Amino acid sequence: MNRTPVVVGNWKMHGSRAANASLISGVLSGVAPRGQRSAEVVVCPPFVYLADLATMLEQAGVGLGAQDVCTEAGQGAFTGEVSAPMLRDVGCTHVIIGHSERRAYYAETDEGVGRKTLAALSAALTPIICVGELLEERDAGLTYEVVGRQLEAVLRALEADPIGLSGLNRCIVAYEPVWAIGTGRTATPEQAQDVHAFIRGLIQSRDARIGGSVRVLYGGSVKPGNARELFGMPDVDGGLIGGASLKAEDFVAIVAATQ
Ligand code: PEP
Fold first, then answer.
1. Is residue 249 assigned to a domain?
2. Nearest alpha-carbon partner for 112 in 56, 77, 150
3. Which residues form the pocket of ligand 1, taking CB atoms under 6 Å from any ligand atom?
């Protein structure tokens, strides 16, 4: 199955107008021009900078993602929240959902991740759905159980909605072992491949075609020095990049490692 690789930069809570302008110009001058790129590239700045960057990225054929979205699809009394249609309105194409930092610090639940996925799909955004186990869960042999539970919640939400399981065709899954995020400790390519194959297998058990075509990204201390090996694994379709996406040179090298 030929799946176009994707590299997503998650800037987390970093940036300023000046820093973003220089980071984006470094990224755009380093990646191959639109149409000649073999990977999709997406950057996810904090909410307040999305609109600033939308036109430039659209012209360059680079996706624009938010780092979270409200579970509620429309407008209403949800102070502090940003809805999927609003993200779409300012030019977003993608949205990260269920990042482990949201799960750990902001009480994001599996069920909430399912609802956010539906909200994003309804607004024609591509959800980048994050799953991954804690170190103690891996050590206790619970990796598949945890990742399976997180993913099942999304599959159930899709199946219970008119969107249906086929909505997964418009999603990207990111496997991010929590112990590898921002720690400098990367999963080995074999550890990543094992869990990616499990994720694909779980989806294939519901629908073989969707399971074969859904992109599954690896995230967790991906750097220019380890990206090629990770992306070379059969079920790793690119990466979700945190720290290294803040340095244009590193991010560009990681995009190049998909080739
Ligand atoms: C992330 O933020 O999703 C991430 C994987 O971070 P890092 O690359 O810094 O580990």
1. no
2. 150
3. 10, 12, 176, 181-182, 219-222, 240-244
Contact at 8 Å (CB) between 217 and 174? yes
End-to-end, the C-alpha distance of the chain in Å comes to: 16
The answer to whether residue 87 sits within a structural domain is yes
Q: For each successive 10 residues of the chain (259 residues), what is the average pLDDT?
A: 93 98 97 91 98 96 98 93 98 98 97 98 98 96 98 98 97 97 90 98 97 97 97 98 98 96
Q: What is the pLDDT of residue 1?
A: 66
Is residue 238 classed as helix, strand or coil in its secondary structure? strand
Count of structural domains, the chain: 1
User: Catalytic amino acids?
Assistant: 99, 176
* Strand runs labelled E in 132-196: 172-175
Residue 241 lies in a domain: no
**Per-residue tokens: 126:** 């591509």
Pocket test for ligand 1, best of 130, 131, 176 (most atoms within 8 A of CB): 176
Q: What is the CATH number of the domain that holds 103?
A: 3.20.20.70
Rg of the chain (C-alpha set):
17
